[in-house]
Design goal:
Length: about 350
C-alpha cells in the first residue's frame, strides 16, 4: 500500500563536508542527488521519472527562500535551477535543499505495480559545508507486514532485498554509514530496511485505517473552499458502495462513490500521487453542488457518470459505468493498493 500522508520510513547519511560550498555547491549537490537516483534505478526501485526542487534560504527565515524552483522534471531544468542557486550564493548561514520525488515500481503477486511517488531523495548543504542525504519510502512492499498489520512474506521477500541493496550502495556513494530514522506511525526503519513488526504494539495493527485514511480525507477537505457543515454528504457508511473510476486517459486517479444510506465521497488512488487529490477536489465540489440541490447520494453519483472535469482532453473524467465494493473499507484499501 502507498502512503500520501507521510513516509513509512526514512534513512540518513552525512557525507564529508563540501570544502567550499559557495563555489558551485548547488551543482555538486545535484550531481550527488543524480548519483543516488541512479543507485535506486539500478536496484530496480525507481523508473527515472519524477519531479525535483531546488530551494536556497537563509536559515533564520526558511519560509522566505532566497531562491526556489519546484516541480521540475529531472534533467536540464534542474541543472538550470542549480546554476541559478549558485549565482545567488551558498554563503554561511544559508541552507540549500535539493529534492527528487521519484516514481517507482514494486512486485506483488507476480505483477509489477507503480506509484508516482515511491521514494524521495533529499540533499541538504549548509553554507558552512556540512551535507545531509535523506531517503524516504512511501510503500509497505519492503515490510514483513502490510499497513493493515497482515503478514506478507511473499511481497516482502520479492522487494526487501532490493531496498537493502540500495541502502548499502548509498553508503558506498556517500562514504558514510546509514542512520535509520526514528520509528514512524507505520514502521521501524533499520540499516537494512525495516524491522519485522509482526509482534508490534497496537499502534501498528491497522496504521492504514488509523492514520492514512483520515489524513487523506483532511487533505481533500483542505482543497475545498469553505467549511463542510451541512454542505456535503455523509463521508462514512457501513453499507456496500457503488463507485466509478475517475481517470485521465488510461490512468486511474481515484474512485467516486455513493451508498444507499446517503453517503458519498471520493477515494484518491494513492499511487497516482498529487494528481489524485487535485482531481478529487473537483469531484467532491460536484458532489457538494448536487447535495445543495437536494439530490440523494445515489442520484448524485448517477448524474456524474460520464462527466468530464473541464470538457478538455487533459481533464479528469468519471467512467460511465459503476462497480460495487462490499464496503467503504474495501474501496479505501483498493485505493491504496491498486
Amino acid at each position: 500500500m502507498i502512503t500520501a500522508a507521510g513516509p513509512v520510513g526514512e534513512w540518513f547519511w552525512e557525507p564529508a563536508p563540501l570544502v567550499a560550498p559557495a563555489d558551485g555547491g548547488a551543482l555538486r549537490a545535484l550531481e550527488l542527488l543524480s548519483d543516488l537516483a541512479g543507485v535506486l534505478a539500478s536496484c530496480g526501485l525507481v523508473t527515472g521519472e519524477g519531479a525535483g526542487s531546488v530551494v536556497l534560504a537563509d536559515r533564520r527565515v526558511m519560509g522566505e527562500p532566497l531562491f526556489a524552483r519546484r516541480d521540475l522534471p529531472p534533467g536540464a531544468g534542474l541543472v538550470a535551477a542549480a546554476e541559478r542557486a549558485d549565482a545567488v550564493g551558498l554563503l554561511p548561514g544559508r541552507l540549500l535543499r535539493l529534492s527528487l520525488a521519484l516514481a517507482g515500481e514494486w512486485r506483488e503477486a507476480a505483477a509489477v505495480r507503480r506509484a508516482e511517488r515511491l521514494f524521495t531523495l533529499r540533499v541538504e548543504v549548509w553554507g558552512e559545508g556540512a551535507v545531509l542525504v535523506a531517503l524516504s519510502a512511501y510503500a509497505d512492499a519492503w515490510m514483513a507486514v502490510d499497513l493493515r498489520g497482515r503478514p506478507q512474506p511473499e511481497v516482502c521477500g520479492e522487494n526487501a532485498p532490493r531496498l537493502a541493496a540500495a541502502l548499502a550502495r548509498i553508503c558506498g556513494v556517500t562514504g558514510a554509514p546509514v542512520d535509520p530514522g526514528d520509528p514512524t506511525r507505520y514502521a521501524d526503519p533499520t540499516a537494512e530496511g525495516f524491522a519485522d513488526q509482526g509482534e508490534a504494539g497496537a499502534e501498528h495493527d491497522d496504521a492504514w485505517g488509523t492514520f492514512e485514511v483520515p489524513a487523506r480525507w483532511r487533505r481533500l477537505m483542505a482543497l475545498l473552499p469553505g467549511g463542510s457543515d451541512g454542505r456535503d454528504y455523509e463521508s462514512t457508511t457501513e453499507l456496500p458502495v457503488r463507485y466509478a473510476r475517475v481517470r485521465v486517459g488510461e490512468r486511474v486517479l481515484g474512485f467516486l462513490w455513493a451508498s444507499a444510506d446517503g453517503a458519498a465521497g471520493y477515494e484518491p488512488r494513492s499511487a497516482a500521487g498529487d494528481a489524485a487529490f487535485g482531481a478529487g477536489a473537483v469531484w467532491l465540489a460536484r458532489l457538494r453542488s448536487a447535495r445543495l440541490r437536494g439530490l440523494g447520494a445515489p442520484e448524485a453519483l448517477d448524474g456524474l457518470l460520464g462527466a468530464s472535469a473541464d470538457g478538455g482532453p487533459d481533464g479528469s473524467a468519471v467512467e460511465d459505468v459503476t462497480r460495487e465494493a462490499a464496503s467503504l473499507d474495501v474501496l479505501e484499501e483498493l485505493s491504496g493498493r491498486s
